[in-house]
């Protein structure tokens, strides 16, 4: 899409003005649209965003991402206002486990400790021993005293962790549709088209895909890996939004997506227009009831203390 630069500059100016009016910081996930990433004060993966949200001075946190991310910011910052850039930006993976389902699974495996992927609601985090992100999942699972782990809700990430640890991992059958639809056949085709090119995939991909990869990394780990590598081209198995920073940080390198449908609709809901509107009208305030927040914070803090 070609952006009209006068519209862009006008919106950028308006967002900057609103930012000082609200005394706000704008944080964005690596999958956001390029122009949204460019206007943010901080861009990162889920772990970096959680860590950044423990060090906020501003009164308002404007979160360009999806709901569970803004909720995590609200869990960590009860005294600040957290705005979600687009009110309908949810995550189907996070939504696939409800508190009733978790209760049922806990009853089925009473001996297990619950480790919830950060892609889950505050209610689920509140009922978990600890949380993890794609960047620290193995380390977090290893840190749990119990040998039996009920890992929710991403079965692909849970399966990846199980290949890296001796812990007994019980998998809940959730998945991210964006990563799960990357098929091994597409990977093999990409490999044929680009021989001798390293394949980097996200652990939310199916086991049949991660098995074919050279490395399995979170989004920001991918950025660091590519920058440190002497290689000049890479095949990428994650949401296409990451390509923006990959290109910015590595103008001399070439990137190929495994397939052309690696797009998260919810991550793309935030446009500069919508962001400006959210800030202007102080819309989409994300709050977590105190009784849930305190318990969820224990799980998030436990994760952050290990990381
Ligand atoms: P990370 O950026 O933490 O790897 O997360 C990927 C993701 O799917 C977030 O929704
Ligand atoms: Fe959820 Fe997948 Fe989108 Fe991340 S990429 S927000 S896990 S649907």
Explain this structure:
With 307 residues, this protein is an alpha/beta fold. The chain has 3 domains: 5-89 and 267-280, NadA-like (Rossmann fold), CATH 3.40.50; 93-175 and 290-306, Rossmann fold; 182-257, Rossmann fold, CATH 3.40.50. 45% of the residues lie in helices and 16% in strands. It has helices at 5-22, 34-39, 46-52, 67-76, 92-95, 99-108, 122-126, 137-143, 155-162, 177-180, 184-193, 207-210, 219-228, 242-249, 272-280, 290-306; strands at residues 24-29, 42-44, 60-64, 81-84, 113-117, 130-132, 148-152, 168-171, 198-201, 215-216, 233-237, 254-257. The longest helix has 18 residues, at 5-22. The protein is globular, with a radius of gyration of 19 Å. Bound molecules: 1,3-dihydroxyacetonephosphate (13P) and iron/sulfur cluster. Iron/sulfur cluster is lined by residues 66, 91-93, 119, 176-178, 239, 264, 266-267. Iron/sulfur cluster binds at residues 66, 91-93, 119, 176-178, 239, 264, 266-267.
Structural class, by secondary structure, is alpha/beta
Number of helices, counting only DSSP H or I runs of 4 residues or more: 16
Count of β-strands = 12
Q: What small molecules accompany the polymer chains?
A: 1,3-dihydroxyacetonephosphate, iron/sulfur cluster
Output the radius of gyration: 19 Å
CATH homologous superfamily (4th level) name of the largest domain: NadA-like
What's the structural blueprint in terms of helices and strands?
Elements: H1 5-22, E1 24-29, H2 34-39, E2 42-44, H3 46-52, E3 60-64, H4 67-76, E4 81-84, H5 92-95, H6 99-108, E5 113-117, H7 122-126, E6 130-132, H8 137-143, E7 148-152, H9 155-162, E8 168-171, H10 177-180, H11 184-193, E9 198-201, H12 207-210, E10 215-216, H13 219-228, E11 233-237, H14 242-249, E12 254-257, H15 272-280, H16 290-306
Parallel strand pairs: 1-2, 1-3, 3-4, 5-6, 5-7, 7-8, 9-10, 9-11, 11-12
Helix pairs in contact: 1-15, 4-16, 13-14
The protein binds 1,3-dihydroxyacetonephosphate and iron/sulfur cluster.
The site of 1,3-dihydroxyacetonephosphate has 14 residues, from helix 3.
């Amino acid at each position: 899409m070609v952006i009209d630069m006068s519209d862009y500059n006008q919106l950028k100016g308006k967002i900057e003005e609103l930012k000082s009016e609200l005394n706000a910081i704008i944080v964005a996930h690596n999958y956001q649209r390029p122009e949204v990433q460019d206007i943010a004060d901080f861009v990162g993966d889920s772990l970096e965003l959680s860590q950044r949200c423990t060090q906020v001075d501003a009164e308002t946190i404007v979160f360009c991402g999806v709901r569970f991310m803004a909720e995590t910011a609200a869990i960590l910052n009860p005294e600040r206002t957290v705005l979600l850039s687009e009110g309908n930006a949810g995550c189907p993976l996070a939504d696939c486990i409800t508190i009733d389902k978790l209760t049922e699974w806990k009853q089925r495996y009473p001996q297990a400790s619950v480790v919830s992927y950060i892609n889950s609601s505050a209610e689920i985090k509140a009922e978990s021993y600890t949380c993890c992100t794609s960047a620290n999942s193995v380390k977090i699972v290893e840190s749990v005293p119990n040998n039996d782990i009920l890992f929710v809700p991403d079965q692909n990430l849970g399966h990846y962790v199980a290949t890296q640890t001796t812990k007994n991992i019980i998998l809940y059958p959730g998945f991210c549709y964006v990563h799960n639809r990357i098929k091994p056949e597409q990977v093999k085709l990409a490999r044929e088209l680009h021989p001798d090119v390293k394949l980097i995939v996200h652990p939310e991909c199916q086991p049949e895909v991660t098995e074919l990869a050279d490395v399995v990394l979170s989004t920001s780990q991918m950025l660091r890996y590519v920058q440190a590598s002497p290689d000049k081209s890479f095949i990428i198995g994650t949401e296409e939004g990451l390509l923006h920073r990959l290109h910015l940080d590595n103008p001399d390198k070439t990137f190929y997506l495994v397939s052309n449908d690696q797009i998260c609709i919810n991550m793309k809901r935030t446009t500069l227009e919508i962001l400006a509107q959210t800030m202007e009208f102080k819309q989409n305030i994300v709050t977590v009831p105190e009784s849930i927040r305190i318990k969820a914070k224990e799980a998030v803090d436990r994760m952050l203390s290990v990381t």
